[in-house]
Amino acid sequence: MGPYDLHIFVCTNSRDPEHPRGSCGRSGSADLLVAFKEAMSPVRDRVRFRINQAGCLNFCEHGPVVALYPENIWYRVKSRQDVKQIVDRHLHQGQPVPELQIPEAILRPFEV
């Protein structure tokens, strides 16, 4: 077992504003990273977790993108309210938030 039970990766990659795919960094993901850290702070003594800023997670058009591991659940997070829902519903109650999840069809476009 590793040192953490949960990893939260928040894409903060920024591209040129003219880039056709956009970027999570230019969509406010740095603030969302802070929001996750604030929301998770009260449980630091009960849950072994790490919140990391990530480079491009390759789903720029759907961002800002957040990936939770080991569950391998990917979210499109647009606001601090979305962060609150993920922390309250998914991380505290164990219920993923389907309306914020990036659909499996988008995450697995090249199935063999």
Give a quick summary of the entry.
The protein is 26% helix and 19% strand.
Q: Approximately how much helix is present in the residues?
A: 25-40%
Q: Are there runs of 5+ residues with pLDDT below 50, and where?
A: none
Tell me the radius of gyration: 14 Å
Span between termini: 30 Å
Characterize the biggest β-sheet.
4 strands, mixed
Silhouette: globular
> Structural class per helix/strand content?
alpha+beta
Number of helices: 3
Give me the strand/helix succession.
EHEEEHH
Would you write up a description of this structure?
By secondary structure, the protein is an alpha+beta fold. It has helices spanning 29-40, 80-92, 104-107; strands spanning 6-11, 49-54, 65-69, 73-76. The model has no long low-confidence stretch (mean pLDDT 90).
Which characteristics define this entry?
single chain; 112 residues; alpha+beta; 4-stranded mixed β-sheet; 3 helices; 4 strands; 26% helix
